Amino acid sequence: MIFDVIIIGAGQAGLSMGYHLSKTTKRFIILDQGKRIGDVWRNRYDSLMLFTPRSFSSLPGMKMDGNPNEFPSKDEVADYLEQYADTFDLPIQLETEVLSLRKGGETFSIESSQGTLHSKEVIIATGPFQTPAIPPIYKNLSNDVYQVHSSAYRNPSQLQAGNVFVIGGGNSGAQIAVELAKTKEVHFSVSQNIRYLPLSFLGHSIFWWFDRLGILKATRNSFIGKRIRSKGDPIFGYDLKHLLHEKKITLHPRTQGCSRSIVKFQDEQQVEVQNVIWATGFSSNYDWIQIPSVCDNAGKPMHNRGITNIKGLYFLGQPWQHKRGSALLLGVGEDAEFIVNHLQDR
After folding, report:
1. CA distance 105 to 99
2. Is 277 helix (H, G, I), strand (E, B) or coil?
């Protein structure tokens, strides 16, 4: 059997695409390597909370349960995604790892752990958070130092006695540092000045204000979009800022190197460390796509709002694919609808 569309990835992007495709006559299936819908969220650190309230954390067609002005936990998001797939009876094949993607003529071939599938069109909805990115300097630390990437961190009980260094200045690193400061001596290393934004302002979520001011509508190549992208993401909320001010967390500049149990910083200071959490983000890996000219020399997908130069091949859920929310629950549905309309028009 040849499918009309195969979607690779059953996270928020893949489910949004499934929702819109279910309104068409196209025969499709969603493949995912997980054992359960939402496990990518369930397997994150226990204290993870979204910085978008429930009113800005829903996929098309179904609101997230609960107070719309409060912030959901990662388990709520996981359960919501699972409920979403069930509610719309989306055709999903779990425990299916995609090994390679090729194209011959007008048909794509997908080699997977469950066999070979064929499709006229393919949507790659695996998202940006694929492979933990850890700087190679980690190898210089002694085995006596406990090291873990933020994607594998769950809670403070994992760590050994002594201090902990959180390296990486994103929102995950900030949340983890704040949690650990309750019971540990915490050091926080960042590569640039930290910018903060409130979670709420004058009784409304900061994302409510973004929406009212048109920031969420700014496209990637607009003046506002380019300016936001150049600045990088801020830290949402002031918990970290308060703890730094109270000296309950020690701030350091960029980590320059490691040697046995010593971490060295850009300002030439160095500190002995017992635990390190690498909150250094993720890298994408598309080596399994055996089709020329899909990615650039840096390995990033080449596309225009998800549409590639390869007929029938699309990406969904990329950061700033079209707008700020393209890789988030709040915005991925709009991009999915755009791609489905493009499929229908072909």
Report:
1. 20
2. strand
DSSP, collapsed to helix, strand or coil, labels residue 201 as strand
| Spatial CB neighbours of 287, under 8 Å, sequence gap ≥ 6 | none
Q: How many CA atoms lie within 13 A of 156 on its CB side?
A: 16
Q: Tell me whether strands 249-252 and 270-272 are parallel, antiparallel or unpaired.
A: unpaired
With a threshold of 0.85, does the pTM exceed it?
yes
Distance CA 37, CA 207 (A): 27
Write the CB contacts of 221 (distance below 8 Å, at least 6 apart in sequence): none
Does any domain span residue 225?
no
**Alpha-carbon distance 13 to 152, whole Å?**
22
Cα separation, 173 vs 27, whole angstroms: 41
Both 63 and 48 in a single domain?
yes
DSSP secondary structure, 303-332, as one string: -BTTB-SSTTEEE-S-TTSSBTTTTSTTTH
Domain that holds residue 182: 133-195+234-278
For 341, what's the count of Cα atoms within 13 Å in the CB-facing half-sphere? Answer: 7
Q: pLDDT tens track of the chain, all 346 residues?
A: 899 999 999 999 999 999 999 999 999 999 999 999 999 999 999 999 999 999 999 999 999 999 999 999 999 999 999 999 999 999 999 999 999 999 999 999 999 999 999 999 999 999 877 789 999 999 999 999 999 999 999 999 999 999 999 999 899 999 999 999 999 999 999 998 999 999 999 999 999 999 999 999 999 999 999 999 888 889 999 999 999 999 999 999 999 999 999 999 999 899 999 999 999 999 889 999 999 999 998 889 999 999 999 999 999 999 999 998 999 999 999 999 999 999 987 6
Residue 202 lies in a domain: no
Domain-terminating residue out of 246, 261, 278: 278
Ramachandran bin of 93, using left for φ above 0, alpha for ψ from -120 to 50, beta for the remaining angles: beta
